[in-house]
Structures are given as C-alpha cells and as structure tokens.
C-alpha cells in the first residue's frame, strides 16, 4: 500500500507552470530567456484598488470573513452582473473564492460522482480535465480545430451529450486560443442545451473584458435566460484588473449549488483573504478606465505578434477575438530538424527546442488538447515581444 493517494495518479502537474519553471531555471543559469508561457498581465494593479487594500488594513479588516465572501463584496458582484451582463442575482446566489480556479474546483467537487461526464471543448485551459478527474468525473474532449475557429459547433455538442453528461465547460474568450462566441454562436449552443435539461453549463468568463475589434461579449445565461437555473457563471478580478496575485474569483448560480460550494470551502480554505476582498470590491465599484486602456495595449500587442508569427516559415497564426494569447499552428514545421539537429516530431519537441536553442518559452499545444500548435501569452512588454518574435523567426528559418 502506497503512502500517496491513488487519486493523484489521475492528474499531472500544470504544463504551463512547468514550462515557466523550466524557463526560470535556465535564466538562473545565466541564459537570456524570454518567457511567453505565463498568462499574467504585466501591468500594475490600479492605484485606487491598492489604496482600498491599504485602507482595509488600517481599518483593521484583517480577521476572518464569511466563508464565501463579505456581504458588501457579494452585493458589488450582484451589481456587476446586473450592470454588465443583464443578470439579476441575490447575494445568496454568489460565492467568492481564492481565485477563479477555486470556484471551478469547488463546483466540480461538489457535483461530480464517479463516471459523470463533463464536456470540454479543445483546445482547453490545462486545468479543466485534471479538475474533473480529481473529482471522479470523466472528461469528454471535443476537438475544435482551427478551421472551425477553435469553437464548439452545436452539432458536435449534440453528439457529445450522453445520459452521463453533467456539465459543459465553456470558456469565452478562450485560453489558449482567444476564440470567442458571439451572440449567434452562443445561441446555437444554448438551443442544444435546452433540449437536454440535465446538462449544466460552467461558463468561464474570466477574459470577458479583453475583447478586440468590436467583438461583443456574451455569457450563456444572458443569451438564454431559460438556462439560468443550471448555469454557474464564473469570473474574477485577476485578468481584467491585473490582480492575479490577489487571488479573488467569484461565481453566480442557484442557491443550492452555491450552498454546496460554500460547504466544501468551509472545510478547505475557508474565506478568501480579507484584504483582497476589499480590493476586489474597489475594483468592481470604482473607476473602470483601466480596462479600456489595458484592452488597447493588448490589442496592439496581439496585432504585433500575429503579424510577426505569420512571417515565420511554417507557422500559421489566426487572429484571436480576445484574451491575451495566440495559438498558432506549426503543421508546416512538423518533421523538420532544428539547427541543433532536434527532430520536431510534435509540438512538445518544438517548444522544448525553441527554449533550448533560442531562449523563448512557450507552451506546446498538446497541453491544451489540440496539436500541432503552441500558445504564446502576449501579456508582456512590446520590446520583449519584438525580440521573441525575432528569435522564433530565426529558429524557424534554420529548420530544414
């Protein structure tokens, strides 16, 4: 009998964190490394949010709070959903966790039994399948390739639903592809879901405000109100307000699910950081100018990266609608050999060779369930991006 739980064998370490760690190790050895693997804005948290946190400390708000969020933060979240998404929720239908990841984890742990199925469109955020597996469920991966814009079609959704389906996880705009579902595309999916009343929807809206070229964000419960009683809408402050380290995510759902998630959280982390909750409240209720400014910067970076990658031999980079990632194809490089004589048999070999030979850290597509691709996060400075694209182009030109 082993000491470690057998459930750990179901999952693997996060590939994005692993690549970031490997890049850090090489940097520590004195190598010139440009990291494009982490999904974290490089901007500072807006000043008024930081000031609210300092004021909370000065006021002595350093004790335990309610398990799943302070009443004032929950009211601010309700106001956010009403103002931005046309969704009406009561505070009893809101949960606050230590980042968006905990909201997702709590929901799956609170609802999945052995063998329950969760539909996950690929490419997907790396943690979705492992969370499902850890909760005892079965991920049902539906490939959504570049030719369909990396988006799930209603036909593929219909074909993936079985009597064991409990959830569909829908991330728009998407990590890693940046693909978004407009109103018509979302409506086509919700029409399918109306025919399957046992299937719930986990809407990961964390990149809601990072959309480009006039793309209009929508969320499933907003598009189809008849689905609201079986939708968990998850969001957070990490990406929109550059608050990744503050660790605040939130969700809205029917009271029964919110209560089950709070029960689980009460026996795990308990409340999120009290100071971070006051900062998140300031983010949601204070000036919103930062969002437009950061969106403009990210769109400029997106255009720079897409143009640069499409000038690289063997790379085909589509234009994403949102988030701060691109997910280019390297089908034209598979089977070639790098300058250091590394065979590029797949996208993982490509990513490792690129890091070893050119000092650019990216994440290989297999980590996200769809190959042959790789993901770049352009949430870093323009100068770093220009240098990185130059190195990638030189690497590709040297392959034969």
TrEMBL record:
Pfam families, alphabetically?
Aminotran_1_2
Segments forming domain Aminotransferase class I/classII large? 32-387
Source species, domain of life: Bacteria
Q: Which GO terms describe its molecular function?
A: L-aspartate:2-oxoglutarate aminotransferase activity; pyridoxal phosphate binding
What GO biological process, any one, is recorded here? Answer: amino acid metabolic process
Q: Which UniProt keywords apply?
A: Aminotransferase, Pyridoxal phosphate, Transferase
Q: Which reaction does it catalyse?
A: L-aspartate + 2-oxoglutarate = oxaloacetate + L-glutamate
Q: What is its EC number?
A: 2.6.1.-
Full protein name: Aminotransferase
């Amino acid at each position: 009998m082993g000491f470690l739980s057998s459930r750990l064998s179901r999952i693997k370490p996060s590939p994005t964190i692993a690549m970031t760690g490997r890049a850090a190790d090489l940097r520590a050895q004195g190598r010139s490394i440009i990291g494009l693997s982490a999904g974290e804005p490089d901007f500072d948290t807006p000043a008024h949010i930081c000031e609210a946190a300092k004021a909370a400390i000065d006021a002595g708000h350093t004790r335990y709070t309610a398990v799943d969020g302070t009443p004032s933060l929950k009211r601010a979240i309700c106001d956010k959903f009403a103002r931005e998404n046309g969704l009406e929720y009561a505070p009893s239908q809101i949960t606050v966790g230590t980042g968006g990841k905990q909201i997702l984890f709590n929901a799956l742990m609170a609802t999945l039994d052995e063998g329950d199925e969760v539909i996950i469109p690929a490419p997907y955020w790396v943690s979705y399948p492992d969370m499902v597996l850890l909760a005892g469920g079965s991920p049902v991966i539906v490939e959504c390739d570049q030719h369909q814009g990396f988006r799930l079609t209603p036909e593929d959704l219909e074909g993936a639903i079985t009597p064991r389906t409990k959830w569909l996880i829908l991330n728009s705009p998407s990590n890693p592809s940046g693909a978004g579902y407009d109103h018509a595309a979302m409506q086509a999916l919700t029409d399918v879901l109306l025919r399957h009343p046992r299937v719930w929807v986990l809407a990961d809206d964390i990149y809601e405000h990072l959309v480009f070229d006039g793309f209009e964000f929508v969320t499933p419960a907003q598009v189809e109100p008849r689905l609201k009683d079986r939708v968990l809408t998850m969001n957070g402050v990490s990406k929109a307000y550059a608050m990744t380290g503050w660790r605040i995510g939130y969700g809205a759902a029917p009271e029964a699910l919110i209560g089950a998630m709070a029960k689980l959280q009460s026996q795990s982390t308990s409340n999120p950081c009290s100071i971070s909750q006051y900062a998140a409240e300031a983010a949601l209720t204070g000036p919103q100018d930062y969002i437009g400014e950061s969106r403009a910067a990210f769109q400029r970076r997106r255009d720079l990266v897409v143009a640069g990658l499409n000038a690289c031999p063997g790379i085909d980079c589509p234009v994403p609608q949102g988030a701060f990632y691109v997910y280019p194809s390297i089908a034209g490089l598979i089977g070639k050999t790098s300058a250091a004589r590394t065979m590029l048999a797949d996208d993982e070999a490509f990513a490792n060779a690129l890091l070893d030979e050119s000092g650019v850290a990216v994440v290989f597509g297999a980590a996200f369930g769809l190959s042959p691709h790789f993901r770049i996060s352009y949430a870093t400075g323009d100068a770093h991006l220009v240098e990185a694209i130059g190195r990638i182009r030189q690497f590709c030109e040297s392959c034969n």
